[in-house]
Amino acid sequence: MSEKTLTRMDLSEAVFREVGLSRNESAQLVESVLSHVSDALASGETVKISSFGTFSVRDKTARVGRNPKTGEEVPISPRRVLTFRPSHLMKDRVAAGTKR
């Protein structure tokens, strides 16, 4: 497994090389896309990216948990969580370990 992490800068650089926009325009484009995705998720919308996967927000209800060390019951507050469900194509690609 690789130790490399893909960053915003890496995405901007890829847009610069593959699309031909300037570095500044590429960075602005990446920021704009990420901002739109973030805003949609924050407002509770589902974000589906074809051949990649689906991001969605789920509301978790309050429940009682347990401290594993002491066994004491602990209340867990209701909260919103972000989930990602990869597409079948993405799952297959990751399983095969192929780049493109």
Automatic annotation (TrEMBL):
Gene Ontology MF annotations: DNA binding; structural constituent of chromatin
UniProt cross-references to HAMAP family, sorted A to Z: IHF_alpha
Superkingdom in the source lineage: Bacteria
Organism: Neotabrizicola shimadae
Classification via SMART domains: BHL
SUPFAM superfamilies on file: IHF-like DNA-binding proteins
Gene Ontology CC terms: cytosol
UniProt family annotation: Belongs to the bacterial histone-like protein family.
GO biological process: DNA recombination; positive regulation of metabolic process; regulation of DNA-templated transcription; regulation of translation
Iron recorded as keyword: no
NCBIfam families, per database record: himA, PRK00285.1
Subunit structure: Heterodimer of an alpha and a beta chain.
Entries under Pfam families matching the protein: Bac_DNA_binding
Main function: This protein is one of the two subunits of integration host factor, a specific DNA-binding protein that functions in genetic recombination as well as in transcriptional and translational control.
Name of the protein in question: Integration host factor subunit alpha
